[in-house]
Every structure is written in C-alpha cells, then in structure tokens.
Amino acid sequence: MTLQTKYLLDESQMPKFWYNIQADLPKALPAVLHPGTLQPIGPDDLAPLFPMELIMQEVSTEREIEIPEPVRDIYRLWRPAPLYRAHRLEKALGTPAKIFYKYEGVSPAGSHKPNTAIPQAFYNKQAGVKRLTTETGAGQWGTSLSFAGSLFDLEVLVFQVRVSYDQKPYRRAVMETYGARCLPSPSNQTEYGRSVLAQRPDHPGSLGIAISEAVELAVQREDTKYALGSVLNHVLMHQTIIGLEAMEQLQMADAWPDVVVGCTGGGSNFAGIAFPFIGHALRGGKKSRIVAVEPAACPSLTRGKYAYDFGDTGHMTPLTKMHTLGSTFTPPGFHAGGLRYHGMAPLVSHCKELGLLDAVAYTQGQCFEAGVTFARAEGIVPAPEANHAVKGAIEEALRCKREGKSETILFNLCGHGHFDMAAYQKYFAGELKDEQYDEKELAMALSGLPSVPEPA
Amino acid sequence: MTLQTKYLLDESQMPKFWYNIQADLPKALPAVLHPGTLQPIGPDDLAPLFPMELIMQEVSTEREIEIPEPVRDIYRLWRPAPLYRAHRLEKALGTPAKIFYKYEGVSPAGSHKPNTAIPQAFYNKQAGVKRLTTETGAGQWGTSLSFAGSLFDLEVLVFQVRVSYDQKPYRRAVMETYGARCLPSPSNQTEYGRSVLAQRPDHPGSLGIAISEAVELAVQREDTKYALGSVLNHVLMHQTIIGLEAMEQLQMADAWPDVVVGCTGGGSNFAGIAFPFIGHALRGGKKSRIVAVEPAACPSLTRGKYAYDFGDTGHMTPLTKMHTLGSTFTPPGFHAGGLRYHGMAPLVSHCKELGLLDAVAYTQGQCFEAGVTFARAEGIVPAPEANHAVKGAIEEALRCKREGKSETILFNLCGHGHFDMAAYQKYFAGELKDEQYDEKELAMALSGLPSVPEPA
C-alpha cells in the first residue's frame, strides 16, 4: 500500500490572511509600559522604531489581517511549506500515534524566520524606510532579514553578538551573500557599543547589547528603522501562516491534532503553529492540547516569573508582562542559540496564564538524542532549536504507546541543522554538556525585577 | 497579476520509471575494458563490486526501468522536487527569456545525490549485502549514501579525502548523524592506504586513493559492496527522474525548453536533467539545445581527449572511453569539489561525440558572481557546483536579451550552498583565485593515456 508522505498545497491555496489571536482571547493582553514613566504607551511611542502599519498590527484586535500581495508573491518562493506524516519515525518508536510535522526548513534561509522578515521589510519599504537595523545571535534572524532586504532593496545592518560573529563566520557569509552588512557587537559604530568597549575591549557581546546598538542607530535617523525577529505580537502573527497551512493540510489527511507541539525561545515559531489551533478551540472548535517545549537551561515558561520586565539587558525597551528569568539573567551557552532569551513573548505568556497551553523543559542532551532519532528515520537533520519540538513530540508519541492510544500529534520542525553541525559533532564526541544555569543568579535576577504598579 | 512561482507535482504524479538513454542512442556505447587484459568485460567481472541488479542496469538497453516501490516510498520524503520560474532573476537580468530551474536542494542531504544513493542502497540490501564502502571528497556523496544506509539499515563506511576530512568536519558530522562511519583517506584500514602512508605519513589524500581504499575493502568481503556517486550508466539513469519530473512540470507551465543547462563533474546531475530531453529529440520530439557547463580549472569536455582511460589514479578500475584529462592529472583545488574529476561519464562523453550536446567552461570567479546574482534575486544560495549551471543559464538569458529572443531556458539547481559558505566568504573577501591547471601537467597526463586497441 502506498502511504502518503507529504501534504502539499498549491500556491493558489496559500492563506491570504494572518491570524490574530488577540481577537479571540477571553482577556486582553496587559498594557505595554514606557521604560521611563512606567505608564502605558501608545502607538506614537513606538514610531521611531517601527513603521505605523506594524505598530497597528501590534495592537490590533482584528481576527484576520490581509497578507499584502507583494508579501505573498515572495512567500511563494517556498510556501506553502510541506506537511509531513512521519511514517518512519512512528515505526521506529513503535507508537500507535500518528505524527505529523510542518517543515519550515524549506525557506531559503532554512527556517521559519523569513515568514516575518518579508512582511517587516515590505511595510518598512512602503513607509519610505531606506535602512533596517537588527541584532542576531547565531544568525538565523540576521540571515532572514538580509534575504528580505535583498528582495525589497533595503539596506540591512546586522549587529551580531561578537562571540557568534567570530565562531560562526558561515552565517555572516550568507548575510553578505544577500548584500547585508554584518558587524560584531559591541561595535564602535554606536555610543552604547563604544561605552561597553571602553570598559572591556574584548567584550564577547550579548543579545541585550546588540539590541541596544541596533535600536540606537534606528532612532537616530529618520530613514532607518529597527526590526525584531520574535517576541512582539505582530511577529507572532506573521508566523501564524504555519498553523493556518497545517490546518488545511491536516484536513487533506483527514486528521486533526490531539496535541500540538512547538519549541519556545522568544515564542514566534511556537505561536505560528499553535495560535491558529488555540483560536479554533476558543471559538468553540475541537480543543487540541498545546505543548511548549523549552530548554532546561533557559526555562522562562517553567521556572520564570510572570511579571513586567524589560526586553533587553540595557533597559532601553518598553516593559511587557511576560514569563521572565529577569533581564539580567545570562543563560549558559548551550547550542540552541535561538532559544537563549530571558523572557517570553507576552502573547505566549498570556496564553500560559490563561491555561491555554502546557510547558515542559528538556536538556540539550535529551534534545540532540531525539534529533538524531528523527534524522535517521525521516532524513532531515533538525536545527538544535527544532530538536526541542522533536523531543516533545517523541515524548507524546511514547506516552501514546504506553497508553495504547492512537492520538494525532502535530509539531513544527522550524528549521534544518545544516549550519549547526558543529553542535552535532560535539554531541557525537560526548563533549556536549547539559549546561546548568546558576540557581543563585536566577534568584538574584528574579528578585531584581522592576517594581511596577499594575496599570488600571 | 499573480505570477506562478513553483510548479509542484503530487506524490501520485511522481515518475514510476527511470529513463535509460541507451535505448535511444543512434550508436551503442564503446565497450568497457578489463584493466589487466584490456579486453571487454562482462557482468560477472563487476560482481565483486556491485549487486547484479545494478550491473544489469549498467548494460541495459531497455528504455524504461521501473523504480521499485520501496525506493519511490523514500523518494517521497522530498520528491517530486519543485520546478521554479525565475521571475525575479529574469527581471534582474532584464531578459525576455523565460528561465526555469529544477531545485534538487530540497533533499535531506541538500543535493541530487540521494536520487541514486537510495536505489543503490535498496538493490544492495535486496542482494543480502550488509555493508557499503565508498569515497567522498567534499562530502555530498558520502552524506547521501549515509542517509540511504540509515533508511535500509546498511553499514556505510566512507573514505573521505584527508584534506577535506580535516577542513570540513561538518559534512562528517552529518554522515555520523545518519549512523555512518567516516575515515580519513589514506587510512591504515587498507593495504593500499598503508602503502601510501608508508611513503608519506602526512599525505593529504585524493579521490583516486579513496576510491582504491573503498574498492579494496569491498572486494575482500562477501557481505560488502562498493557504491559510486556519479560516472556510471546506472547512476546517471537514476538521476533522470530530475528531467522526467521537469518535463511534466514544464507542461503545467505550458512551456518547453529551447535550452537545457546543467553543470558537469562526473556527469550525473547534468545527465539527470538533460538525458530525458535528448531522448525526446532522438525519438523525433522537439529538439532542445543541451549545454554542459564545466569548471575552467578541470575542463574534461572542452580540453580533454575522448579516449580510453582509468576511472581512478591507482588504475584498479576498468577502462572506459570518455573525455579525460588523464588519470594522473590533478585538478587545482577550487571550490566546486564535486566537479574535480579527471574524466567524464562515458554516456555524457558519447553524447558529446555524437553532437547531442555543447560544452562550455567558466572560471570559479565567474560562477560565484553568477551565484550571488541568483541568490539576491531568487533567495536560494546555490552550491559552488550549481553556480556553474547558474552561470550557463545567465549567459543564455543575456544572449536572448542581445538577440531579442524570448527563449525558454531550463537549468538544474542541483544543490544548496549552506555547507559551502567558506567559499562565498573567500569570494567576498577577494581571496578567491581563478585556479589554473598546469598546461605542462595536462599535456603529460594526456600523453600518458593508456594505449588501447579499439575493440571489435
């Protein structure tokens, strides 16, 4: 018997709208606060950083927001992305569960990040912006924004955390291939960068510093804006095309998920696969169990506090209510660089507080083991971040085996690992430690959270 | 107006047969000769190296050979591969030509190589083989055979040229992820390897030596066979699924190519895209111009002799009639490692002699420039090998612009460059030299070709 492996949508079947979960939430998101006044901010406060269309999306409660045709035209370079039935993984696990995965590694950048890089570049271009600044750690986001910039003829300047800049020159080479400029951060191009270098000329950098540098340059110039790859509401919304496509494709397979699994760092790929299903249930549809999988070394959802905090270490960004480990918390240097963030997207945090999702944490050793099992069964070598979702899905499938249930499991394979083979190499060499954060440092970071009166 | 970007086939539309060009050739291939006796060899002479099914495919003149269902079942993990219309590249070039490209980088290994690795593993498994040996340079082929081995539960042992083994540890990490063993060649695991190391303990290795090591181990053990990633007739035939799918997809686009372009190293991805179109014309269908693009630093088709020669430097393999630079010729170390072979597939060489294809050569600088133009327009960063096909297609498109012709150009984008960013980095740093071979060395290698009486 021929088993269908992939469920493909034609370009004409690609969703024409993103899904905005803010329309269906039983309780609105807590306000965003100004870092200076601690008072709720309005759209104008964000105007130096983002074009107004994106700010309006950030606060919109419309359920559907139309994907502009020029964005859809570029999405077609890799979208609709395939949905796979993991026949071989099911067999390898001996599970009665049906496992489906949405594969976002088919994008030119190799991950889900272009889903938001393209519309962000589009709206900026439309607003007359000439240049975008951003930060990147391992390089997935910087690559994707560079790709988007090349298509909309926007100058892109990426501040890459210096330790990654030095260790991972290949990602930088991809950004340069797309015509972007990539600088190690801290740099001497910004006041903040120079101040950090003055204190410590060999500073290895951090995402917090890189954000501050990118923001500093963006606010200085009228023709320059800033772009962020996760966390914000509009970013998460752009990613919902993942789940919306998956819904169509599951119907082709005559299936509907009992469980939806995604990995969480800032929260965007997770929201992309999960929010359409959460919304479906909120509107009275069948409820799926939603599982967020995070790294044990940076466990914002499972060990963080739900509180107001800054998005960056330098305290230049607005405050949002989210699950946070404290903005001064430095996660240990594990390999899923995309998941090394002290906070969590406010929308994902809010859903967690509303009981709409579960969260679990696994060590990187557990996740690489799962990733290798997956690669040997299904062929695709997942990115270290995606291995967290793989691990979550495998655990659900093994539970189904124990319980004798043939549940349907859907997970998001958010990217391939072809840029991350050094991490696999360490795993095979037995050199991959399960990095632990310092409990004392976490307690200190949490006790240092800003004291904010609950806004009216 | 919405422009269609991708032409997708459903799994049910995937070809069920490979195309064997030997059925349509106006003149049969010259015989293969025994390296010792110089007499034509029969199937039994190859039995120590390959399972009989593959040997029969090697000599078959049947037009269609059925793709076994277990092979098709695995092909479905990434096939049918998409055909793209390069709207953005056309616009960037300002050409009236219509450019289509078939993208083989969607395979888990990132290239076309699994198209033959999977059936080779299948036929070996069917014949009771437990272990496959092979050689690899940069690692594309070793990766693909490792992937195939993981799916058919075959042990895979890859001899990787030592200089690549040391310089490109990431490819090795992928092979290990698939459960294969990868050794640097020359190794101390074979008699031949030990003899090389005895003469020069720090020998950097070569494909010729790695082939000899893999062959030596394969003939020693009943349960072990050898697998080759290009050059042989059956390998080229497995790749024809590329062109067969492209034919279906072009018909969806209501198009047919005036020109078909592929890059040539051993000849397999080129044959994969081109042979179905050559056969179509040989059977009386519309004729497309067929263009093989090779590196100027290793120009077997444009500068080599059409003569009998050995496939390896150690002269352990049979002799075939092909375009060769001489088996003792060492190509300079340019970046398209997959195109660094002294010879050319006998079938591709034969078609060249029959006037069925044209060949051109470009320097690596020209090809990287083309690859960057492509990436900035279409998003995908091509492998250095694939850049040769991109360059060939761009040259055809610019000719169409000069001549005011809106011809249809099809080329094969055989793989992505995510493992090759070090080469792009050198290109951007201005450190990429256009490596020249030594004219004297070429003359010497050509004058040293074996003297073989034309067989009856």
Automatic annotation (TrEMBL), chains A, B:
Keywords: Amino-acid biosynthesis, Aromatic amino acid biosynthesis, Lyase, Pyridoxal phosphate, Tryptophan biosynthesis. The modification N6-(pyridoxal phosphate)lysine is found at residue 113. Its cofactor is pyridoxal 5'-phosphate. It comes from the Bacteria. PROSITE patterns: TRP_SYNTHASE_BETA (PS00168). Pathway: Amino-acid biosynthesis; L-tryptophan biosynthesis; L-tryptophan from chorismate: step 5/5. Its EC number is 4.2.1.20. InterPro entries: Trp_synth_b-like (IPR006316), Trp_synth_b_CS (IPR006653), Trp_synth_beta/beta-like (IPR023026), TrpB-like_PALP (IPR001926), TrpB-like_PALP_sf (IPR036052). It catalyses: (1S,2R)-1-C-(indol-3-yl)glycerol 3-phosphate + L-serine = D-glyceraldehyde 3-phosphate + L-tryptophan + H2O. Residues 77-415 form the Tryptophan synthase beta chain-like PALP domain. Gene3D superfamilies: 3.40.50.1100. NCBIfam families: PRK12391.1 (NF009057), trpB_rel (TIGR01415). The beta subunit is responsible for the synthesis of L-tryptophan from indole and L-serine. Tetramer of two alpha and two beta chains. Belongs to the TrpB family. This is Tryptophan synthase beta chain. It comes from Hydrogenophaga luteola. The lineage of its organism: Bacteria, Pseudomonadati, Pseudomonadota, Betaproteobacteria, Burkholderiales.
